[in-house]
Write a structure and sequence with these properties.
- The protein is an alpha+beta fold.
- The protein is built from two helices and two strands; from the N terminus they run ββαα.
- It has helices at 16-20, 34-45; strands at 3-5, 13-15.
- A two-stranded antiparallel ribbon has the order 1-2.
- It is flat and about 35 Å long.
């Protein structure tokens, strides 16, 4: 797993998976529905 900095000042390190899936889910009123999120993730893993 590769990690990268989340911003220049936060000091947080997050995995590339976390950054790539930040738009999954619609709990806040935007983002990909579960079926669409699965398709996106499956393409990334291929």
């Amino acid at each position: 797993m590769r990690y990268t900095s989340f911003g220049h000042r936060t000091g947080l390190r997050v995995s590339e998976y976390a950054l790539g899936t930040a738009n999954f889910g619609t709990g806040w009123g935007a983002g990909a529905e579960p079926d669409e999120a699965r398709r996106i993730f499956a393409c990334r893993r291929a």
